[in-house]
Write a structure and sequence with these properties.
Elements lengths: L3 E6 L9 H8 L3 E9 L9 H20 L3 E7 L1 H12 L3 E5 L4 H16 L3 E5 L21 H9 L42 H15 L3 H4 L12 H5 L5 H14 L4 H23 L21 H9 L5 H13 L4 H14 L4 H11 L7 H10 L14 H8 L4 H6 L19 H7 L14 H13 L2
Parallel strand pairs: 1-2, 1-4, 2-3, 4-5
Helix pairs in contact: 5-10, 9-10, 10-15, 12-13, 13-15, 14-15
Length: 468
């Protein structure tokens, strides 16, 4: 009897180094790849920008799978109902998937695995989306890590599993139209000019980074106007490339070119930070809604809808923050240093709940990741483990002057300030009237006054933290 296997794809939209796909193909017989737009309790709905990326990633993957003789089906609904219905319809006798790690996701997967096995199906899951699975790494006392430095040291000492190859190709089939019900919102049209999507594009981005940008990465990752980062995060978010593929490509370069090993170590430490966030995601309550440090649940956040809206629109009157928020709205991406500054302003100076900011990023970023987005927000807010201390409150003016000294980043994304001289580009509200006039800027008309006093709001934030 011919085997029929279903591969349930989630955050692993690739052919190479896809253990679930390889397991299904290795059985012989028919293989059906399945993606579900989930409506399952406990699974967080994706945001608007990630939904746009997902559509194009599915289209690209459908073409690649069709060339290898595999059909990609896209459904919507409750995952268990969809899989059981498709198994009955197709006569499938096995279902494979790669593991995911959020508490609600794990519950869904465990229930589906148990149900399918009761129905007599073979069900297997695999590790594919992190460098090391969260339960396989622990402190000397056998507990989960809560501090990054020892986690990174332990991870570096581990042997990261080598990526797997591609499953053997079959006779090509005509790919069917996938994700046909998706209609991109009008605002998403601008995203397309900034990204190439799919597995091939992910590997091109990695090669370009290692060949052309690696040496610039350690200092350049803090310079928002530079093009020094890998821009791999959305590809990782959807598993168009795996973390271990990136790890081993970088390690191979370090062995071949030892003079570049220091640059590679810095890059890989950031890749490992992603694993650290997944470690927290797995071992704790839902980190997108629950503070990792329990005392922060008592924080007295302000209810300030106008301030939140000004932050979301990039109209805070603090240029580097506004530049970052506008960059995100235009491209679905924001440079790392600026992510910290925008989040610090919201949670510290404006004293608005980190969950409000995390949700906005979740909806606007093409790389909004279930572990990284929440983990990084909690790091800035002070509520995370190994978090930035609460008294570390970034000053967006001095940070702008340090990391964007000639205002290149601000001039690109806040064009109403383009004619401001370097001295005043990060503090336009303090500029003399003649400077503002020469630049064609009137504060309150062309560009807003700062939404908050930085010194007074810093003191307010420290008082709020001291009260916990």
């Amino acid at each position: 009897m011919t085997a029929r296997s279903i591969v349930w794809l989630r955050n692993d939209l690739r052919i190479t180094d896809n253990p679930a796909l390889s397991a299904a193909a290795g059985r012989g017989g028919q293989v059906l790849a399945l993606y579900i737009h989930e409506q399952s309790h406990g699974v967080r709905p994706i945001g608007g920008a990630t939904r746009w990326w997902l559509h194009h990633s599915l289209v690209a993957l459908g073409t690649e799978l069709g060339a290898r003789g595999i059909t990609l089906a896209v459904h919507e609904g409750n995952s268990q109902s969809v899989i059981e219905g498709l198994a009955d319809q197709s006569g499938a006798d096995a279902v494979f998937w790669n593991r995911r790690y959020a508490p609600g996701e794990r519950t869904v997967d465990e229930e589906i695995k148990a149900s399918l096995r009761e129905r007599g199906l073979l069900v297997e899951s695999f590790g594919a989306n992190v460098l090391v699975e969260p339960w396989t790494i622990a402190t000397g006392q056998g507990r989960p890590y809560s501090v990054y430095a020892p986690f990174w040291k332990a991870l570096k000492a581990r042997e990261v599993e080598r990526p797997r190859g591609r499953p053997e190709a079959r006779r090509a089939i005509e790919p069917t139209e996938v994700d046909a019900d998706y209609t991109a919102p009008r605002w998403a049209a601008k995203l397309g000019s900034h990204w190439q999507i799919g597995e091939a594009a992910a590997h091109q981005a990695l090669a370009r980074f290692l060949d052309e940008k690696l040496e610039d990465y350690p200092p350049g990752r803090d310079i928002p106007a530079s093009d020094a980062t890998s821009r791999l995060s959305p590809h990782l978010r959807f598993g168009e490339i795996s973390a271990r593929q990136i790890w081993h490509a970088a390690m191979a370069m370090a062995h071949a070119e030892p003079e570049r090993a220091g640059f590679i170590d810095k890059f890989l430490s950031e890749l490992a930070w992603r694993d650290f966030n997944y470690h927290q995601l797995y071992h704790r309550h839902d980190i997108s809604s629950t503070s990792m440090q329990g005392k922060y649940e008592a924080m007295q956040w302000r209810q300030a809808a106008d301030d939140l809206a000004a932050w979301q629109r990039g109209q805070t009157g603090l240029p580097i923050v506004d530049a970052g928020m506008r960059e995100m709205w235009e491209t679905g991406f924001m440079q790392n240093r600026v992510r910290m500054l925008t989040a610090s302003l919201l949670t510290k100076n404006l004293l608005i709940d980190w969950r409000d900011g995390e949700q906005w990023f979740w909806d606007c970023l093409v790389d909004a990741d279930v572990a990284n987005n929440a983990g990084n927000w909690q790091w800035i807010a002070g509520s995370g483990l190994d978090a930035s201390p609460y008294f570390r409150i970034f000053n967006p003016v001095t940070q702008g002057e340090k990391f964007d000294p000639d205002g290149s980043y601000v001039r690109r994304w806040v064009p109403e300030l383009a004619r401001m001289p370097d001295k005043w580009i990060h503090r336009p509200a303090e500029a003399p009237p003649d400077v503002l006039s020469a630049a064609g800027v009137m504060i309150g008309r062309d560009y807003p006054a700062p939404v908050v006093d930085l010194r007074a709001s810093r003191a307010r934030a420290l008082d709020a933290a001291a009260a916990l």
